[in-house]
User: Fold this.
Amino acid sequence: MQRVIFATGNAGKMKEIRMILADLNIDGALVEVVSMKEAGIGLDIEENGKSFEENAVIKAKSVAAAQSGAIVLADDSGLEIDYLNGEPGIYSARYMGEDTPYHKKNSNLIERLDGVPDEKRTARFVCAIACVLPDGRVLEEKATIEGRIGYEERGSNGFGYDPIFMVPEYGKSTAELTEEEKNEISHRGKALRAMKERLRTCYK
Assistant:
C-alpha cells in the first residue's frame, strides 16, 4: 500500500484530510494517510517562507528528507483579513503565540474590527498544498474561500478561526457547517481535491 505522510500534527486538520483523501487510489489501491507523528517523524520545522506556498514546500521537503518511499504532503494555510492589511496571514498559527487558545485569538480579531461594517469585514481562508513525490518531484496547488469576519464566535464543528469566518451564501460560520459542507467549499478541501487529481495523473 502506498503511504502518504501529511506534515502536520493538527488533529482537526488530519480529520479533514483523511475525509477528503479517502478515495485516493494509486496503482489501483487505496493509500494510507498518516500524520508525521504516526510516521514516527519528530521534526521541528522552521517555517521561514514569505508566502503560504513557500512554507508548504519547506514543510514537505523537510519531511521527505527524513524518510524515503512515501508521498509527502504539507499545507500552509491561514486567514487573511482585508481591513487588517491581510493579517494574520502566514502567521495565522503563530498569531498572539502558538500556544494561545484560538478563542482568545478570535476575540482579539473581533475586537480589532470593532465598529467596522459588514462590507469592510471581507476575508479569506488560503491553503497552499505542496507534495514531494518519492522521485523528488514537487507539485503545488493553492485555493481560497471568500467570506467575512463575524461579530462573535459561532459553531463548534470546526477549529482555529472557523467560528468567526462567515460564509455569506450559507449564512453560517465555517464552524456551523457540517463536515461534508465545509469540505466541499473550504480552501483546504478545494486544494486537496486539486492535488488528488494531480497525483492520479502522475500515477496513471
About this structure: DSSP finds five helices and ten strands in the chain. The mean pLDDT is 92. The first helix runs from residue 11 to 20.
